[in-house]
Amino acid sequence: MFTAAIAGASGYAGGEILRLLLAHPECQIGALCASANAGSLLGDHQPHLPSLADRRLEPTTPQVLAGHDVVFLALPHGASAALAAQLPQDVAVVDCGADFRLADPQAWARFYDTPHAGTWPYGMPELVRADGTRARDDLRGATRIAVPGCYPTAVSLALAPGLAAGVIDPTDVVVVAASGTSGAGRSLKPHLLGAEVMGAMSPYGVGGVHRHTPEIVQNLSAAAGAGATVSFTPTLAPMPRGILATCTARLAPGVAAESVRQAWEETYAAEPFVHLLPQGRWPSTGAVLGSNCVALQLAVDESAGRVVVTAAVDNLTKGTAGAAVHCANLALGLPEPTGLPTAGVAP
Ligand SMILES: NC(=O)C1=CN([C@@H]2O[C@H](COP(=O)(O)OP(=O)(O)OC[C@H]3O[C@@H](n4cnc5c(N)ncnc54)[C@H](OP(=O)(O)O)[C@@H]3O)[C@@H](O)[C@H]2O)C=CC1
Ligand SMILES: CC(=O)N[C@@H](CCC(=O)OP(=O)(O)O)C(=O)O
């Protein structure tokens, strides 16, 4: 058994971590923390978690969080570093924010307005790298882990196999992805007013300025073993959760179209949470809601000379909380799939 504290328990990511931990056979849920909402009941914020409704939220302090085996941080960017620095090194800290995801301080400075906090092992276990290792190799027994962003999860798992196998060109990657509105968190944002979001799709962060761009570049470069160039355009879709990423890359010279799929089949054959769908069936956000899986499909567009890979994830499950629990399992030496759902909620 392990004990877990959750900072950010009143938010979307914190709520999803709690939903998963309630079904985790090895977890005992400890302190639940918030900021402005400290003192209120969890049931005021997470009505879908009735068994925890009467738990009172505590202030987010190192004293409250220490004394647990695992601390999940689901806080706004910039809030994790000071807190983590005051937690004992033997506590496994799993951070859902961006603070420790990027290795390059200059890339951080171009996209974020807080000082670069540092770099922790990157919590995308299935990510394959050019040297054949996977990111999980850095996560077993780790006590500090940076959980990936939701778009980088979909895009990196979609393209890494082809890059690592050299069948697609890392210098010409184009991604357009649609996200549900929960990706933006719970706090009020004018562009997310219901009347404006419902019934409309719109792009944002256009022109290479979205802060997930350097994280995607970092992952695709690690997979390719060479610098990747990525044009990434996010769009907002009228749905509460889910991401559908359409990723295309130029077919590498001399690669036969019919040999392309093999790279994905071999990379993910033994991965419980990455599903390359049978040929002809395409991913849908509706099929992965509440599940810790990414669904993938690919096709070769021979007239354009490009490989098209589509990925669907639930931004709050595989895209955040599921990855966080998966990482905690690795940190604690538990079987990786413990407590994690592969079944979604449909329709
Ligand atoms: N939503 C998503 O799909 C994804 C989110 N993430 C990351 O997870 C983190 C949380 O996101 P999300 O749950 O969506 O955000 P929310 O806005 O829904 O929740 C934020 C939580 O953090 C608490 N909080 C705010 N400021 C502080 C502070 N200074 N100190 C302590 N606690 C604080 C809030 O408490 P209170 O209610 O008291 O204000 C609330 O519990 C972010 O870093 C986000 O980038 C990562 C991938 C995907
Ligand atoms: C729809 C929407 O607004 N999505 C968020 C992504 C949230 C997320 O995954 O990422 P972080 O952990 O890096 O914040 C955005 O585009 O900023």
UniProtKB/TrEMBL annotation:
The catalytic activity of this protein is classed by the Enzyme Commission as 1.2.1.38
Kindly give the Pfam families that the UniProt entry links to this protein: Semialdhyde_dh (PF01118), Semialdhyde_dhC_1 (PF22698)
Predominant localisation class: cytoplasm
Name the catalytic site residues.
Answer: C150
Q: What region holds the Semialdehyde dehydrogenase NAD-binding domain?
A: 3-135
Provide GO CC annotations from the record.
cytoplasm
Gene Ontology MF: a single term: N-acetyl-gamma-glutamyl-phosphate reductase activity
Which controlled-vocabulary keywords does the entry list? Answer: Amino-acid biosynthesis, Arginine biosynthesis, Cytoplasm, NADP, Oxidoreductase
Reaction(s) catalysed by this chain, per the record, are: N-acetyl-L-glutamate 5-semialdehyde + phosphate + NADP(+) = N-acetyl-L-glutamyl 5-phosphate + NADPH + H(+)
Which compartments is it annotated to reside in?
A: Cytoplasm
**Gene Ontology terms: biological process:** L-arginine biosynthetic process
Q: To which pathway does this protein belong?
A: Amino-acid biosynthesis; L-arginine biosynthesis; N(2)-acetyl-L-ornithine from L-glutamate: step 3/4
Q: What does the UniProt record say this protein does?
A: Catalyzes the NADPH-dependent reduction of N-acetyl-5-glutamyl phosphate to yield N-acetyl-L-glutamate 5-semialdehyde.
HAMAP family found in the cross-reference section: ArgC_type1 (MF_00150)
Family statement:
Belongs to the NAGSA dehydrogenase family. Type 1 subfamily.
Q: What is this protein called?
A: N-acetyl-gamma-glutamyl-phosphate reductase
Gene (UniProt): argC
